[in-house]
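Q: I have 223 residues here and want to know how they pack in 3D. Can you give me a structure?
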Amino acid sequence: MKFHHFFILFVVLVFLIFPPIFVNQTDFFTNGSNTNDISKFSLFTVVISLIWSLLLYILSEQKGEKFSRNSLRISLISFILIFYFSFIFKQIKDLLGFPQDKMIFNLSKTEKFLSCLQIFVLCIYEEILYRKFLFTRLNLLLENTFTQFNFNHNKNIPTVISVFLVAILFGLAHRYSGIINVIFAFLSSLIFSLCYLKTKNICLPIISHVLYNILTFLTITKF
């Protein structure tokens, strides 16, 4: 990997990947929150996420991405798997006595729309960041490193390592929501990465991610 590629990867790790892991985050949607602040926060998040998504996509490897019935089927299967694991983890949380997810109250139609828009854009951002950019760069870095040091290895090993490293980082980025959700995010990342590997199209894991997150938001929102 050329130096400027490594430098870009380093900058992204420092400014985009590590902050969610090491900075404490809190749930912005709580009872009694200022609804005007929620709207401003959602708009700010949407704008910043769109800007970063565009920049990361430009910096990523650009290859032809096509849709097919099979790729859409894989995306649907990914969504079903994540939804199934979500149900299993909810049962585990209940058995272990973890607190229930907070319900979101008193959101106006505008705030609900902005929240869904925020979720949609954040899913795009996360998939471009973790799958399209980070996974591709890590995989290339490992392949070049193994080749440079003449490691006799299976060609799939760099890919497997990259998938797990990205899943670990993705899971840790959700540590603010508790250990159970960190594990769930780790497993979700594995599924999204496999979806991306199978389809070679970043839009497919984005579809799965958006469907799951918006459905989850709607289930904890009191209309």
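Q: Anything worth noting?
A: The two ends are 51 Å apart (CA to CA). Residues 67-223 form one domain.
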